[in-house]
Structures are given as structure tokens and as C-alpha cells.
Amino acid sequence: MEYEFNILYYINMYKKWWKNIVKLMMIAMFFTTIFSMLLPVTYVSTVSIISADTSATTASSIGKFLGISNIASSSNDIIISMLNSNRMAKDIAQFLEFNKKQNFRYSMIIHTVTAGLAMDIKGNDPALTEKVANFTIQNLDKINAELNITPSKPMAKVLDPAVYGKRESRQILRKVFIAGLLIFLLVSLYAFFTDYLKKLKGSSGA
Fold first, then answer.
1. Residue 125's closest CA among 195, 42, 47?
2. How many helices (H) and strands (E) does the chain have?
3. What is 43-167's CATH number?
4. pTM
């Protein structure tokens, strides 16, 4: 069964379904708004660092000149591995336990930036996000001293220390728009699919 593109067919289809589409979109957008507003507030503290390994900086410049990216990223890769390690997570847990904040839940996100790294600590306490972020960077030297990973001391230089956590945007409008668009697409697919099945049954019955 073949169909030719007919704009009038699509217009008529939406004329039949527009009330249901609008109703379901409004419901989805309403509940998305309520759910987003009920989510706990998240705060983020960011610390920016650059590698203290001057040899790595020189290698980075040479690597860029020669078109070799591995040389430029080796120092950052070591720091990222340490930040994401179980050892670091354990030390942060001990830090929170010492400060009697065991219930604090956080997440760590690491970004590569020009000539360094930026680390975000997200959580529900703006003061603790700042403390955890700064402790994490300081703890790099402790781990480095114990394991003798690199002779660079300090291992990383703090370009911008973490400050009192900033409230992260809930992005409610973005979520509401996505929810409405998703419902529009799903209902549209359902409408055309059911119409296709009806025509298929009609043609087979004939």
C-alpha cells in the first residue's frame, strides 16, 4: 500500500487530534513543572587548576607545535585519574565524617579547560560544596606524597579556588519545552499510526 505526500492529509489529521494533543501537552508540561520545583536545590562550587609540572607545560607547547596531543594531555590525565580514584572518594568520606557531615551527598564533574582543569562539586549544601572542592585539590598533594606519583610539588596550582556554592538553575523552562515537544511527537506518531492501521484494514477488507 503506497501513499503520496499530501499536505491536506496532515492538516486534516491534526484538525482531528489537536484537542487531544494540546490537552496531553498541557498535562505533561504541568507535571514537569511541579516535579522540577519539588526537586532539591543543588549548589555548585568550582575550582580551576593548572598543572604545576613545568616540563609538562613545555611538552605541551612542543606537542601542539608537532601536532601531538598525547604529550599535552598526559599531566592532566594523571590529575583526572587521581580525582576520580576510589582513594580520593575514601579521603573525602573521611573528611566529611571528621566534620560530622556524613549525610552530605555530592557529585564531581571535571572539565578540561585551556591550560588546565576545572572541577565542579555539586551538592545540597553551598558551604560544603566549597569545602569539599578545596579539600579535594589539597588532597592531591597528600596522595602524591604517599604514592610518589610525580616529583612536582604542589602537584597542581590553584588558579581560582572554590567559593561558596552557587545555586544551580533548575532549567524549568527547558524541561517544560522538552516535555511538551516529546508529547507532541508521541501523540502525532500514535495518530498517524492508528490511521494507517485503519486504512490498512479497510484495504484488506475490500
1. 42
2. 6, 5
3. 3.30.1890
4. 0.70
C-alpha cell at 44: 555548585
Residue 173 identity: L
Contact 130, 164 (CB under 8 A): yes
DSSP three-state, residue 80: helix
Task: Enumerate the domain spans of the chain.
Answer: 43-167, 170-206
CB 132 within 8 A of CB 92: yes
Encode the chain (206 residues) as per-residue pLDDT tens digits: 455 557 787 788 888 898 999 999 999 999 999 998 898 899 999 999 987 664 444 344 434 444 444 444 577 888 999 999 999 999 999 999 998 888 899 999 999 888 789 999 999 999 999 999 999 999 999 998 888 887 777 888 899 999 999 999 888 999 999 999 999 999 999 988 888 888 777 666 55
Element (H, E) at 65: helix 54-66
